[in-house]
Amino acid sequence: MMMETVQAAEMLPGLERIRARFITMLVDRLDELEQLCDNMYEDAPDLAALEMSKNILHKIAGSAGTLGMTTLGDAARTCENQIISFLESSQPGLEQIFDSLGEFAELAEGLVAPSH
């Protein structure tokens, strides 16, 4: 994945600047997701928090995919799709969504950490 990003950056002027802005934005989005997750409980989930989380993940998935960060984009898309499914049918359970969000956050923090 890293090699693809480096090659793309060499081919497209300014891509690294866009990628750096994305990483900066990702820090803020992770903070937002963490705050929203604090509002989600097994017995009475906050549907507004789930909807806002879904929207954040959708944006991250699209941007990450465009910038060649396929693994991060796929992880965000998985979380987004699980939330959509939960909102429509209460499946999968919030525990599975939290697990997926945790995996996504680990991937994202791995990208963010080197820039701080």
UniProtKB/TrEMBL annotation:
<protein>
    <recommendedName>
        <fullName>HPt domain-containing protein</fullName>
    </recommendedName>
</protein>
<dbReference type="Pfam" id="PF01627">
    <property type="entry name" value="Hpt"/>
</dbReference>
<dbReference type="InterPro" id="IPR008207">
    <property type="entry name" value="Sig_transdc_His_kin_Hpt_dom"/>
</dbReference>
<feature type="domain" description="HPt">
    <location>
        <begin position="18"/>
        <end position="103"/>
    </location>
</feature>
<dbReference type="InterPro" id="IPR036641">
    <property type="entry name" value="HPT_dom_sf"/>
</dbReference>
<keyword id="KW-0902">Two-component regulatory system</keyword>
